[in-house]
From TrEMBL:
The keyword Cytoplasm does not apply. SUPFAM superfamilies: P-loop containing nucleoside triphosphate hydrolases (SSF52540). CDD domains: MLKL_NTD. InterPro entries: Adaptor_Cbl_N_dom_sf, MLKL-like_MCAfunc, NPHP3-like_N, P-loop_NTPase. The keyword NADP does not apply. This is Nephrocystin 3-like N-terminal domain-containing protein. Gene3D superfamilies: Adaptor protein Cbl, N-terminal domain, P-loop containing nucleotide triphosphate hydrolases. It comes from Athelia psychrophila. It comes from the Eukaryota. Pfam families: NPHP3_N (PF24883). Keywords: Repeat. Residues 217-375 form the Nephrocystin 3-like N-terminal domain. One of its GO terms (biological process) is cell surface receptor signaling pathway.
Length: 425
């Protein structure tokens, strides 16, 4: 009775670019709509209620709303409101469903099963009473099969969603307990990652004194030239990008020209989370450039949920506008350093960030220079390859610098340390 149906996904939209929250809201409406369509097609929908796993009370409401559109809208709104409240309570349902992922496959399966029920119902509705009686055993078997398949799909999808939420909740809890060093009630409480700053007293090392001097000198030459506003240090793993960034940050801080820093680190909770980048930079601006503090704090007071706004709005209100207001009052460009873009957990946001920053630098005279470092990964290369980013950026490839003398100096230093610690050698 059933046959392989075409891919039903186009009928329900491209969900793969929706957030999990949006998907739950949209999918619930799709399911309710299909239930109503199927219940309309079959006069005696009692068995179907069991197939769909719908309680008697809910199905009674569906029967009542067949001829009353307002009640139907009310039911859908009630279900969506419940799911929305749950999503807002969790505040975790913002990860995109990736096409081809386990969640997407479970969703495909679930939609396919619901679609098959709909198509079977249409077939049964077109059958004569004699055919319905003659094929009653086949119908019964089909209902049982639908019941099993749909139950399995619902369980698989719900279990996957719960696992997803649990993992996100665990990660969020880990990030929330990171010490911020900010007193309760501070405007930036929960928005700042101190561990990502160059000044954090952690296991972050700068270059050995006297090494990577050519790279460091090249950076300061670029800064003074004013040719572009963005400098991109690129290089493979192990080329010392983070150590160079730390050294430059310390030198800039000693000269009073360091505005803010953020050192991404893969798998380190909030340090790998893009959502903390802009607010952490803004917090440092209030300290390094006090003149920006009124504008930044005003933006935070006006919108206590500014961290949930779009990246464009956050950058505009917390970084660009406060710095732009100083453009006519400062002649010494300050430096913002963002290290290891490739270790951020959101590739799409990094690409968007590079584009927004490049456009801001191209259209406004901001009193800052940005040093960005990363490996040459595809998503980052694409972002820097746009016409706007190319015009605003100077790339310095660490592979083009001769590091043989630096390696020699490093080995001599390490051997000296070993000798000092092991005098019996």
């Amino acid at each position: 009775m059933t046959s392989k149906s075409p891919d039903p996904r186009p009928e329900y939209g491209n969900y793969t670019h929706m957030s999990v929250k949006d998907h739950f809201l949209g999918a619930s409406q799709t399911i309710v709509t299909l239930v109503k369509e199927v219940s309309d097609l079959i006069p005696n929908a009692g068995p179907l209620a069991q197939v769909l796993g719908i309680t008697g009370a809910v199905f009674e409401i569906i029967n009542q709303i067949k001829t009353n559109k307002d009640d139907c809208v009310l039911l859908v709104e009630r279900i969506l409101r419940f799911l929305k409240d749950m999503a807002e309570e969790c505040k975790l349902l913002d990860a995109p469903i990736v096409d081809g992922s386990a969640t997407a496959r479970r969703l495909d399966n679930l939609i396919s099963k619901i679609d098959l029920i709909k198509k079977d119902a249409e077939t049964w509705q077109e059958s004569s009473r004699w055919d319905a009686l003659w094929h009653r055993d086949t119908l019964k078997d089909a209902l049982l099969k639908h019941n099993t398949n749909l139950t399995d799909c619902f369980h698989a999808f719900n279990t996957g969603a719960l696992l997803h939420l649990t993992a996100r909740a665990d990660n969020s809890t880990h990030q929330m307990i990171l010490p911020t060093g900010l007193a309760p009630g501070h405007l930036f409480t929960g928005l700042v990652v101190l561990e990502a700053m160059h000044s954090y007293k952690g296991p972050r090392r700068s270059c050995l004194k006297g090494t990577r001097q050519a790279v460091i000198d090249k950076f300061f030459e670029w800064k003074e030239s004013g040719v572009t506003h963005v400098c991109w240090f690129s290089g493979p793993a192990g080329f010392g990008k983070s150590a160079i960034s730390q050294s430059i940050a310390e030198l800039c801080a000693s000269e009073g020209i360091l505005a803010a820093t953020f050192f991404f680190l893969r798998g380190a909770g909030a340090r790998s989370d893009f959502n903390y980048l802009i607010t952490t930079l803004a917090y440092q601006l209030t300290l390094s450039i006090p003149a920006t503090k009124p504008a930044i704090e005003s933006a935070l007071r006006e919108d206590v949920r500014i961290d949930s706004q779009s990246m464009e709005d956050q950058l505009e209100k917390l970084i660009i506008q406060p710095l732009k207001a100083l453009a006519g009052h400062s002649t010494t460009p300050s430096v913002i350093i963002i290290d290891a873009l490739d270790e951020c957990n959101d590739h799409a946001k990094i690409g968007t960030f590079i584009d927004i920053v490049a456009r801001a630098c191209s259209s406004r005279q901001l009193p800052v220079r940005l040093l960005l470092t990363s490996r040459r990964e595809d998503h980052i290369i694409r972002a820097f390859s746009s016409a706007v980013a190319t015009a605003a950026t100077t790339e310095l490839s660490l592979e083009s610098f001769d590091a043989s003398k630096d390696i020699e100096a490093y080995l001599q230093s390490r051997f000296s340390e070993i000798l000092q610690q092991n005098r019996h050698i």
